[in-house]
Design goal:
The protein is of the alpha+beta class. The protein contains 13 helices and 8 strands. The longest helix is centred in the C-terminal third of the chain and has 21 residues. The protein binds a DNA duplex (13 and 12 nucleotides) through helix 6, helix 11 and helix 12.
Length: 279
Amino acid sequence: MQTKINDECIILKDIHTLNIDVTLDCGQAFRWEKNDDGFWHGVAYGKQLYIKNDGDSLIFKNTTMQDIEQIWKKYFDLDYDYQNAISNFSQCDILTQAADYCKGIHILSQQPWEALCSFIISQNNNIPRIKGIISRLCEQFGDKIGDEAYTFPQAQKLCECTVAQLAPIRSGFRAKYIIDAAQKVASGEINLDELYTMPIEQARQELMKIKGVGPKVAECTLLYGLHRLECYPMDVWMKRVQAEFLPNGLPENINQYAGIAQQYLFHYIRMNYNYLSKK
DNA sequence: AGCCAGGGTCTGC
DNA sequence: GCAGACCATGGC
């Protein structure tokens, strides 16, 4: 991987597998927006970033080589071998189609607390509105770190809030769930960092101690916040795929890559539902 | 206008 | 253990 540094840009060459456009717009993260110049801008790990693809290169703006090494390589999962994972999908038609359609989608490593909070908000909700709620949450309770850029508010901040104080973000019945999660995390009753290595079933149970966290939200938190790739969140779209194309579930050799398969199937069915359901 | 959305809780069998 | 009502809100 070669690196080139201009005045304001850092360019990583030979990044073949990451497609920024799809990765940031496939329903796993809710805080990225695309500018007219093609750059995506967002905030993660308390840092603001501008990024876009340019052929086989990745162009970073508003960051440092040190942050790329310590934060963004992990966040965008640049060191994981996606080709190898996808090579295991070849015996399953729908997985092969989905993987082909979703080339370049990586599973992001978001901060565990942000992922937990975001997917609590996601329940019985649609993606545009999830983005709006999270945006208002950050604007109201996060730290301002740039022009219209805010950090994701920490649990230590939100644990002090009442449902009434959260009213401006218009999260509806989910407000009390956000507060319960914040209290359990801020108090140390739940230690999210332990979930990186905890046996997976125990990790699920740990998260489901939080009010408003059931199997789906726990699974999303573990997949997108802790990079537990064996997790397989089942939302309404995944149930449609399963019913129509995977009556016997995932092939067993996919289990350790189930999270990748899930993200590809989710995006594929959502983008092609009318076409696929007619076939 | 009514249905749906990256679900979960609570109640009643 | 399982079905069904209910939950806030807004996009379509």
